[in-house]
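re the bet — no i am not wrong, look at it urself. input seq straight from the record:
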Amino acid sequence: MIALVDYGAGNLTSVKKALSSLGATFHVPSSPDEVRSANAVIVPGVGHFGATARLDAPWRDVISETTRRGTPLFGICVGMQWLFEGSEEAPGVDGLGVMPGQIARLAGNAGERLKVPHVGWNALTFAAPARLLTGLASGSQVYFTHSYAAPVTTDCVASTTHANTFASVVERDNIFGVQFHPEKSGDVGLHILRNFLEMCR
């Protein structure tokens, strides 16, 4: 059973539909204690990083605890950003901190006009072998909608460029994150979700 964490970020329905189409069994926990018995945890999200403040100490503690035990944790869009230490978008709101670094606003080079938010299809440039990306090719297209992004660190297994080059997929041990929306990324997105589900079995 997968715990699909709802903190009011808005895209829960589309993630539910994608998981259901893949035959996954999931529930939306109403309290942190319900996360403890989950085989995996998914933290989705759209919109403002400040919404993650609803994941207060009890939620953070239990998600951290289950992750330390080896339970797979998957962050989607703002859910991936929450895996990091914090974001320029909401100073004072801490991330989970299981990935090092701060989330920063997309910014073009001096004198360059940059469309923000970054909305639409863009390519994944693979940086390292990754279980989440098994069976896919570098250059695969996925659907983004965001204004802030994670830095390219040693946990980055795929990057994307929209003026800035940012981490679009991160993976370390049992922790995974994608900046894009796999539930809106067609066959490629479903393939990524399927890879995650296989690791949860």
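see?? The two ends are 10 Å apart (CA to CA). told u. also The first helix runs from residue 12 to 21. so pay up
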